[in-house]
Every structure is written in C-alpha cells, then in structure tokens.
Amino acid sequence: MHATRRRDLGRRRFPRFQLDVDWFVKSPLVSALGRGLELSAHGALLPASCAGAFVGEVTLYLSLPAREKMFEARCTARQREGRWLLLFEAVSPADLQLLAHTVQDEGDSLPDFAPGGAPAESDTNHL
After folding, report:
1. Segments of the chain with pLDDT less than 50
2. Rounded to whole angstroms, how far apart are CA atoms 90 and 73?
3. Which residues, at least 6 apart from 118, have a Cβ–Cβ distance to it below 8 Å?
4. DSSP characters for the chain?
C-alpha cells in the first residue's frame, strides 16, 4: 500500500475587491464599525484604522446596496500585517449570492484578467 503524501500547494490566491460599504463587526469583548473594506469570497480585510481586539466568534455585517437586510457572516479573526483578517466560517447562500451580485455591479472593482482567464498577478492577493 502506498502512503498518500499531501502536496504543499502553498497559499491559494483569491481576488480581493475594494468595496465602499458600511460594515460592523461584533465580538464578545469589542465591536467596531467603519466604511470601506477589502473582500473576497473567503473573507474580509478591515482597514488599518480598525483597532479592535477581536476574540472568539466574530460576526461581520455589511450594508450592501439593493438589500434592506444586512449581509451577515460568522468569522474567525486573525491579525495580518497590522490589520484584521476575518475568514468566513458561515454565510447563508442568499448572502453569498447578494455578495456576488454586488461585486459584479462594482465594475471598477473587478480585476483585469490576463490571457487564459486568470487574474493578472497585480490583481491577486492572499486571503
């Protein structure tokens, strides 16, 4: 029997989009709010001006256009280069669909695609 080795694929890259929307983060010890953040399908990167100390279960709320109810995602929080990275743990299918429509409507935020359909290197970031 052969042992299966897990290949080290390194970090995966996902395009991030800058959205100019109001956001609110709630955690057991502290909450924060602001406007504008970087977003991908897997998480959000808060602005450097957000100085909260998020621990435990964190919930991110976004005020997206064309929706009365706020986008909601349960997340885990990590510090990354002095900024808070919120990795999505649970998001409803309706909220994910709304997020996709919002990103599509933000034409200026979409990355330029390189030949072959992959985002250009300058437009991809780790999230």
Report:
1. 1-10, 12, 107-127
2. 6
3. none
4. -PPPPPP-----EEE-EEEEEEEEEE-SS-EEEEEEEEE-SSEEE--TT------SSEEEEEE-TT-SSPEEEEEEEEEETTEEEEEEEEE-HHHHHHHHHHHHH-GGGSPPBPTTSPBPGGGEEE-
Amino acid identity at 76: T
66-99 confidence digits (pLDDT tens): 777 889 999 999 988 888 899 999 999 988 888 8
**What is the per-residue pLDDT for 117?**
41
13-104: which CATH topology?
A: Thrombin, subunit H (2.40.10)
Question: How big is the CA angle at 99 (ends 98 and 105), to the nearest 5 degrees?
Answer: 90
Cβ count within 10 A of residue 114: 13
